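[Meeting: bench + compute handoff]

Bench side (C.D.) handed over the final construct sequence. Compute side (W.E.) agreed to return the predicted structure before the next meeting so the bench team could plan truncations. Sequence as handed over:
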Amino acid sequence: MLQTIDRPTSHRRTGLPRTGGATPRTPHTPLAPAPVRRPLPCRGTDDPDLWFAESPAALEQAKVLCGDCPVRDACLAGALDRGEPWGVWGGEIFERGVVIPRKRPRGRPRKVVAA
């Protein structure tokens, strides 16, 4: 004599809505708008060599452009950590790995005339 066992015809748990095989999605909230990023002066210039110029006037111009840069402090700290040998980094002039207040022009210094 054969014995039969009552089995459910579906593997689905009773009481749950049918999803058609796909998992139900919850409505997600929209993401907040991304913050407006200001362009960095060193990335938006036509002359990237400005930050490594030989001319003291050009280096002063680069320092002015760095004045209100949002990453100025991080740029200066990174240059100090890396030991950058020259250029304008974080609004400061580096020469031979040392921060200097201004670059002297090329050539022999002027003689100071005693009055």
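W.E. noted at the follow-up: The longest strand covers residues 86-89. C.D. will use this when planning the next construct.
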